[in-house]
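User: I've been trying to design a sequence by hand for this structure and keep getting stuck. Would you show me what you'd pick, starting by listing the structure so we're on the same page?

Assistant: Good idea, let's start from the same input. This is the structure you sent:
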């Protein structure tokens, strides 16, 4: 071993590719050596995985966030475009300290109006129709809602952080753009 802990030629490690050493990459052509090299590489890979899991573990919410993002992978889903946001498009009203945020999304002939306030969210699907709605949030935060026959829905928990809505109306799946609450 060298002073910095890496194997050297004296240890049988050949990093030149000349085939004179006995370590990984030694260039031997026999099936037995190739099998041994593959086993050594597999063992090294597993050891590196275990080391990374200890020294640099996966953040708690990252795996769940990745799984939630994959759950959005729906080839049939249409993206509903944000066409109105009261934070950007509305004229401020004097005397109102905490006005609700009004959002309008459109996908084809479907419109979704949503009001987000401190008490939760309130909305309507137009044209009026029943729908299953999921409020998507951070890791693992999916809250199911249902729209009635008039297309109305309500949730008693306001979204925190980034959120989107996934609507299932009949055989159609629509996902809104992601927004910050």
């Amino acid at each position: 071993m060298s002073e910095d802990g890496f194997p050297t030629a004296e240890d049988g490690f050949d990093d030149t590719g000349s085939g004179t050493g006995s370590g990984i990459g030694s260039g031997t052509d026999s099936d037995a050596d190739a099998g041994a090299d593959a086993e050594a590489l597999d063992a090294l890979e597993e050891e590196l995985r275990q080391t990374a899991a200890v020294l640099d573990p996966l953040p708690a919410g990252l795996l769940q966030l990745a799984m939630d993002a994959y759950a959005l992978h729906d080839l049939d889903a249409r993206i509903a475009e944000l066409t109105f946001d009261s934070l950007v498009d509305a004229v401020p009203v004097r005397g109102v300290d905490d006005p609700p945020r009004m959002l309008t999304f459109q996908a084809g002939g479907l419109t979704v109006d949503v009001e987000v306030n401190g008490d939760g969210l309130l909305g309507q699907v137009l044209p009026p129709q029943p729908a299953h709605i999921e409020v998507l949030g951070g890791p693992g935060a999916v809250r199911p809602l249902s729209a009635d026959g008039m297309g109305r829905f309500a949730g008693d928990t306001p979204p925190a952080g980034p959120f989107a809505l996934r609507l299932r109306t009949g055989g159609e799946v629509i996902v809104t753009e992601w927004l910050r609450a």
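That's my pick for every position. To get oriented when you compare it with your attempt: The chain has two domains: 9-55, 69-180. The longest strand covers residues 78-85.
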